[in-house]
Amino acid sequence: MDIMASTSSHLEQGYEKIVRWCSHEFRQRGREFHLEVTSTMREAIKRLRRRPELLTEALTFLSQTRQATLMSSFITALTRGGPSGLPRPIELHAHDPLRYVGDMLAWVHQAMAAERELLEALFGVANDRRMVGSVRVFDGNSEEEDWIRELMDLSVGKLCVPLKVRVQQTIRSQESSIVSYKIANLLQFYMLTMRRTIGDDALLSTTLLEITDVAYGVFYESISAQGRALLRVQVDINDTSLTPPLAILDHVQILRDIMGVYQSSFLGEEDDTEQVAGFEKILDIMIDPAIEMVISANEEKQRLRPKWDQPIYVLNCLSYIETVLEPFAFTRVKQAGIRALMEERVSSLIEEHYANIMIDAHIHQVAEACSSRATDEPLSRIPSMQHAELQAALRNFSLWLSSPDVVQSPRLSHLTVQHLHTTIHQTALERMARAYGLICEEVKKPANKYEAASTLLGSERPFGQVHLLRQILGIDDDDETR
């Protein structure tokens, strides 16, 4: 019994000496930023694992020393820079918010990587050959991994406070929504990187998540304020142009830059649905006020200046917005909404344009009489459809067919998108050809009692021949189904 007691006493004394030696080493050498783990130190930790309470005591000294070391090194990097001033102090770049935040995050990320390498060496954990950026698996079955995660949390705990304060100050001081979005995206990248490498529950991961939420909150408030300011823009009553105003151009240009930043932030793992959902809120905040301004805010201008062509102006603005969105696949849902608005207005403009060219061609009343006759009275007995009036209308129609308006509409020439001009004009001309065909059919009917109907129709171009009219109007036979 005496031998066993003596052996136990000597063993405990040995463990005490190991603890004192480790504590001394951690206090002295732990102050080095890049601490080199010796084989003796590794063996000491291995022996102390048989006495968890003693291991905890030793690692407490390591944790306290590393906290102070990392904190001191971070403050030095911020204010003094490296040896001999190189690299330069991070705070020298405080005027450049993106670089300032990026340098701080890069320093913390590098420090985390070095700290993990130190702890893995200390506990003798073999490198898992995990690729950089890939997700680290935390299965909870490794005691060494639990120690490493706890010690890393304790080591960087003090870093989180100055990092959080400086980043939030930088975020809240930004006036540019583009810079705010770039900072938010940068924070999200590092947040995701940290969660992959140290886990979702790590202190640094939760801190970065909180800062990222603040950054996006500031950004969303910034673009919301821009949208509200856009709706307050006073419409220039004296401006007769039909192109998008400067306020819309500037607003959409900001959106273009933001979309470029978002597209460049893809990690290659997102599917189309995730890409669309990730930008949907931004599109709603920025596009909806622009559309509201284009459609609603200019109704007053239309009332005060009746000759100002609001339908053309609205189509030009919507076309410009859609053109900006088109290169970015993740905006397809919003593009579809804008196209639906455009199609609605194109349909309305086709009706209006058809009525205008029929009036200009002097066959509007004739076509109306043929298509909407309410009685069985012969057309030749209707005042506007008598022989002389019909012949005059056909003569004027023939003259109109020789005018430049057949090829191009002066009004539609103000559309900035050529294919809209072509679509609207060609569709209206197609309807005109069908209306002329109806006129010919009605005039030739014996019930309408026109004398020499064929001679009447053949006296002026297109001589009662619908196919000739289609050639003059430049309408393909394929368009007849429109």
**Approximately how much beta-strand content do the residues carry?**
under 5%
Helix content: 55-70%
Individual helix count:
17
Distance between the termini: 109 Å
| SSE order | HHHHHHHHHHHHHHHHH
Number of strands: 0
Which residue ranges are poorly predicted, with pLDDT under 50 across at least 5 consecutive positions? none
Envelope shape: rod-shaped
Mean pLDDT: 88
Q: What radius of gyration results from the CA coordinates?
A: 39 Å
Biggest sheet layout: none
Derived structural class: mainly alpha
Polypeptide structure, described:
The chain is mainly alpha-helical and 482 residues long. It contains 17 helices and no strands. α7 (203-231) runs parallel beside α9. The protein is rod-shaped and about 145 Å long. The protein starts with a helix and ends in a 9-residue tail after the last helix. The relative contact order is 0.05. The model has no long low-confidence stretch (mean pLDDT 88).
Keywords, please?
482 residues; mainly alpha
Q: Brief overview, please?
A:
The chain has 482 residues and is an all-alpha fold. It is 69% helix and 0% strand. The relative contact order is 0.05.
How would you summarize the topology of this molecule?
Blueprint: H1 2-29, H2 39-48, H3 52-79, H4 97-123, H5 143-172, H6 177-198, H7 203-231, H8 246-264, H9 272-295, H10 299-304, H11 310-325, H12 332-360, H13 364-371, H14 387-401, H15 418-444, H16 453-458, H17 466-473
Helix pairs in contact: 1-2, 1-3, 3-4, 3-5, 4-5, 4-6, 5-7, 6-7, 6-8, 7-9, 8-9, 8-11, 9-11, 11-12, 12-15, 13-15, 15-17
